[in-house]
Request: fold
Amino acid sequence: MESIYEHAGGHDALRRFIDIFYSSVLADPLLQPLFGAGRPEHVDQLTAFDAESFGGPDDFSRSLGGFAHLIAVHRGLKIAEPQRQRFVELYLAAADAAGLPDDDRFREALRSHVEFGSRVAMQNSHAETDDELHPLREVPHWDW
Reply:
């Protein structure tokens, strides 16, 4: 069965999608405070994370710091629910703008992935101790 990664169009399609998404995040007044001026490597990191989550190469875990890095960058951000919701909204809008597949099955996988991930990030952003972190410690593998 085709992976979500393959269905999305592989690395180039995900890179285009994340580039559009990241630009929208940096321009959004609600989210920009979380991201500051941005970091050029963030597009590559998020592309690798999504690729690995969707059944593509494991570059994020192997060479980009893995999930421990993801936990570290979210800690202390204190993400608020309106910010989480806006993140999801811009992520899904970027999928449209990037021309990712629009079949219901793919879009539901994309939506459930970003909903779950944004909730994990929000919880981790408020954790003051390791016990308060979400129990997830590795890149989640999303499937149909």
The chain has a mean pLDDT of 96. Helices lie at 4-8, 10-27, 32-35, 41-53, 59-63, 66-74, 81-97, 104-126.
